[in-house]
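Schema walkthrough. Field components (list of strings):
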Amino acid sequence: MEKIRRVERVVALTKLLVDRPYYLFPLGHFSDLFGIAKSTLSEDLLSVKNALKQFGLGALETVAGAAGGVRFIPFREGLQANGILEEISTRLATPDRIIAGGFLYMSDILFDWHLVVQLGEIFMTRFAHAEPDYIMTVETKGIPLAMMVARAFNKPLVIVRRGSKVTEGSAVSINYVTGSSKRIQTMSLPKRAIHPGSKVLVIDDFMKAGGTARGMIDLANEVGGIVVGTGVLVATAQPQPKLVDDFMTLLILDEVDEHTKKVTIRPVLDGLR
Amino acid sequence: MEKIRRVERVVALTKLLVDRPYYLFPLGHFSDLFGIAKSTLSEDLLSVKNALKQFGLGALETVAGAAGGVRFIPFREGLQANGILEEISTRLATPDRIIAGGFLYMSDILFDWHLVVQLGEIFMTRFAHAEPDYIMTVETKGIPLAMMVARAFNKPLVIVRRGSKVTEGSAVSINYVTGSSKRIQTMSLPKRAIHPGSKVLVIDDFMKAGGTARGMIDLANEVGGIVVGTGVLVATAQPQPKLVDDFMTLLILDEVDEHTKKVTIRPVLDGLR
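Field assembly_structure (string):
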């Protein structure tokens, strides 16, 4: 192979690192790939680190020791995070989103992968201290969001099913009461989805009374998990209190008025928490 | 702002480009961001392009003209694609994945975001000629996969629901017959999900008789879409023919033998198609 120029090496290094958030690459992986000494690699990594920091694109972390290496952490905070949340808030506050029953049409936002990647990184930043082993959600609409939280943490995603599906083997089921409509429903999780004793972060797109999140927390406990946090994209201001004591929401939906066609929603901004 | 060194500029450029596959950045966006002339930017872009090509990390495409710019295309083909498909094939061919009824447990693979990102790029590479406007799938397990195909194409994801859910407004519903169990089921799509005349790529995780894919194709036609392709991760070798004439699968499941606990599955490799 011809000698690789530094600038091209740094391009490849950047691409490989940012493609796998939180994944710890051994330094030998890169020094072998590029055929360079570790000292040269350290200089390259410093350039990547400085550039990412300067442009607010995340952090590079070096872990020392034999099991060490380097990893990219996609922090998204401050003005950048606030800008995204304000944009979503504005997009959600339009009258044509109101659906009969006081719901909001949100699918276009929940299925916009680029927006959802960024939301995943905001959740990761706000829950970084919780160090979850798994990200859990319930089908259907919250799946892309939870997947991107899992991506930002580099942890597996676990999906709770409504009912119990045959293609996932033996499962644990629980009944739960939806807080808003007071109906009894069933949700289930394959037994092999979580290792007992693992830390679980629960993510969902929407919370009204909190019955669904409560169900997921109970189910996580049932299979031996420890819930270390609950995050939702949108939570309604009412009813209070919710069925979940402690949760973090990115947006607060104060009111959907079907008569005046007015939606009142606000982001929970960095620096104001 | 202090003067930005070339190597750091190239790091930021790489990160911003690879974060948004297929998104056309106007050249002015980057020359403004870095405070450099377009000629300097062109040199930087050439370095990024060469490095990505040299390491098999995708392509950089420059579009000329007033509406032009530069975009990253995450091609994943040849040996790299084959390696991923062979890995999945090996992982799926283990006896403990067999579930009563001859099904295979696949959720861990379908919810492994890093694997699914790469699968999305393989689907994109194989369907690039089809130039879809939307990626369509049906809940639940195929959603992450379809989302990553949507990411690789930079196109919106449309999710067909089983039944008709209140929170998505007025919807078109169809009945379809599952090819394997011959049951009549309903699936539906919000009317506003697709613009009439748009090209739709249907993606699903598994195909046996093809009834579900057939239903999605009919539903896409029903709302005025034009289906330009159908892709699945795993298709069973039998029954033949399927209810869908023309589809592309990444893996072929020849047999699941519940008695001998043997799974026979093989990847559809690049160069062998």
